[in-house]
Amino acid sequence: MCLHAPSLLAQYTLLLSAFVHLEQSSSFMSSRGPVHSLGKKHQPEAVGWWIAHARSGIPPLPDLSKYSTNFWAWWITLQPTWKVITAPLDLPTLLPSQEIAGSWHKIDKPGQNSFLSMINALNWWGKACQDQCIDNVSWLAAIADVQWVME
User: Fold this and answer.
1) At residue 15, does pLDDT exceed 80?
2) Nearest by Cα to 36 from 87, 110, 89, 135
3) Is the dihedral of CA 99, 17, 61, 8 positive or negative?
4) Higher-confidence residue: 108 or 15?
5) pTM above the 0.70 mark?
């Protein structure tokens, strides 16, 4: 598991704290099956690679631009219909809305087949862009939005 990332920004550490709190609130329940998993539509290939490798290792990310686009497509697909995200998120003015206008049921799925994959997907992205991530608005916006949803 790649949850510890000392070289990533403080924002990622806050994301990890939100993840632990979310899992703790469900008593670390780990249900299995598609009903308890995040959807796979638009899921980045790297997530499938990681799951196929028993959730270990760091998948190759040869094209960060494509990975970023795929990540956002996946994240947008997972949102409840009332939560609107405008993509591509490459400008600070296009941050996702933080207005709650309905239920989180569609994405409220604790366990290893849910936000753990999302957290690791963000970790790989951050490690792949390293020094550039401070200026990578898309990565920072993704971290902020995933953290907000988990909180």
Assistant:
1) yes
2) 110
3) positive
4) 15
5) yes
Q: Please check the confidence at residue 31 and state whether its pLDDT lies above 70.
A: no
- Which amino acid, 84? V
* Cα 89–Cα 81–Cα 21 angle in degrees, nearest 5: 75
pLDDT in tens, 73-106: 999 999 888 887 766 555 544 556 666 777 777 7
- The rounded Cα 67 to chain-centroid distance in angstroms is 12
Full 3-state SS string of the chain: CCCCCCCCCHHHHHHHHHHHHHHHHCCCCCCCCHHHCCCCCCCCHHHHHHHHCCCCCCCCCCCHHHHHHHHHHHHHHHCCCCCCCCCCCCCHHHCCCCCCCCCCCCCCCCCCCCHHHHHHHHHHHHHHHHHHHHHCHHHHHHHHHHHHHHC
Q: Which residue has the tokens 């995933």?
A: 146
